[in-house]
Amino acid sequence: MQSRLITQTVACLALAFCALTGCSSMPGMPGNIKESTSTFDNSIELSMQPAFVFRTNDGFSGSDLRLALFWRSSMRPGDLVVEVYVRGAESFSTGKSLHFNVDGQIISYASIDELTDIQFKPGSYRGVYIPATNISSKRYLINRQFLDRLLSAHDVRVRLDLRKSFVEGIFSDDTPSSARRAFKEFSEKLAQRRQ
C-alpha cells in the first residue's frame, strides 16, 4: 500500500514538473515534435503533437481547441498542414471553418478534408480514471509566411466553426503546453531542416 502511494506521488510530481517546465520534448506530451525519415522515398517529416489553445491568456482556463503541425520535405515549398482537434464527436462546418484574428485582421481557411475525422479514445487509469471520449479533427493547408505571421503578431485568437456551434481561444499565449510555444519550436526545427 505504501509503495503504491509513493509511486502515485512520484507520478504526480513528474506531471507537475512537466506542466511547469513545458516538457514538449517528451513523447506524447502536448507540442512534442517528432522528426522521421521515410524508408519509401527518403522524405523527411516533422510532426507536432496537438498543443492547447487556452480560453484565456492565463494557461489555466482550460482548452476546447488543440492545434498540431505537419511538414514533409516532398510537399510544395512553403506548405504546412495545421490539424485542429476538439473533444467530442463534432462535425466541423463546411467551407471556411478555421479563423485566425491576427492583430485585428481575420484570415479564414477551408479544410483540405471533406469529412471530419472522429476517433474514439478509450478511458485509462493512471492514478485517477480518465474517461473515454471522442476526438474530432480536420486538416488545413497554410504556408510558412502565415506561420511566421502568427508567431510575430502581438494578439492572435482562433475560432473553429462547428455545424451547430463554435469553439475559440487565444493563440498568443506562451504558457507551457500551449500551441504558440510549440509552433515556435516547430518553426525553429523547420528552419534547421531547410538550411
The gist of it:
The chain has 195 residues and is an alpha+beta fold.
Describe this structure in words.
With 195 residues, the protein is of the alpha+beta class. It has one domain: Immunoglobulin-like (Sandwich). It is built from three helices and 13 strands. Strands 1, 2, 3, 4, 5, 8 and 11 form a seven-stranded antiparallel beta sheet that branches. A hairpin with a 4-residue loop joins strand 12 (156-161) and strand 13 (166-170). Helix 2 (144-152) crosses helix 3. The longest helix is centred in the first third of the chain and has 20 residues, at 2-21. It is globular.
Largest sheet properties:
7 strands, antiparallel
CATH class categorisation: Mainly Beta
| SSE sequence, one letter per element | HEEEEEEEEEEEHEEH
Cα gyration radius (Å) = 18 Å
Q: What is the residue-mean pLDDT, rounded to a whole number? A: 86
Number of helices: 3
Low-confidence stretches: 1-24
Shape label: globular
Question: What is the structural class?
Answer: alpha+beta
Q: What is the tally of beta strands? A: 13
Q: From the coordinates shown, what is the CATH architecture?
A: Sandwich
As for the number of domains, it is 1
* CATH third-level topology: Immunoglobulin-like
User: Which percent range fits the helix content?
Assistant: 10-25%
Q: Estimate the strand proportion.
A: 35-45%
Could you tell me how far the N terminus lies from the C terminus, measured between alpha carbons in angstroms?
55 Å
